[in-house]
Amino acid sequence: MGNIIAWIVLGLIAGAIAKAIYPGHQGGGILATMVLGIVGAFVGGMIFTFLNTGKLALVASAGLNIGSIIVAIIGAMVAIFIWGLVTRSAA
Fold first, then answer.
1. How confident is the model at residue 25 (pLDDT cuts 50, 70, 90)?
2. Which of 24, 36, 41, 48 is the most exposed place for a label (fewest CB within 10 A)?
3. SS3 56
């Protein structure tokens, strides 16, 4: 349970940072940023774990360290990019 809470907190931080450095204007407010950051942190963490261990799972290494923040920011930027594609094609 603590692992999931750590990824949520990490996602909130990563979402804010990713939205600040992502080029262009993204729609959505703070709630969308938080959700995309959390999704990005989960996805980024799962991919990072998969590349390191070959298993697609969340592991206990979800601490607030530089490596996990970078992975979460990259994951959040990917989530923002995909969200932009989805919302542009829907409009």
1. low
2. 24
3. coil
In angstroms, the CA 35 to CA 29 distance is 10
Report whether 75 contacts 41 (CB < 8 A). yes
Distance, in Å, from the CA atom of 37 to the CA atom of 10, rounded to the nearest integer, reads 8
Q: Which of 35, 37, 49 is nearest to 75 (CA)?
A: 37
pLDDT of residue 79 exceeding 80, the answer is yes
Side chain identity, residue 45: G
Query: Which tokens is 71 given?
Result: 């992975």
How confident is the model over 42-65, as pLDDT tens digits? 777 777 778 888 887 765 445 567
Unique residue bearing structure tokens 């607030």: 64
**What are the angstrom distances between the C-alpha of 84 and each of 8, 30, 44, 73, 79?**
22, 16, 18, 16, 8
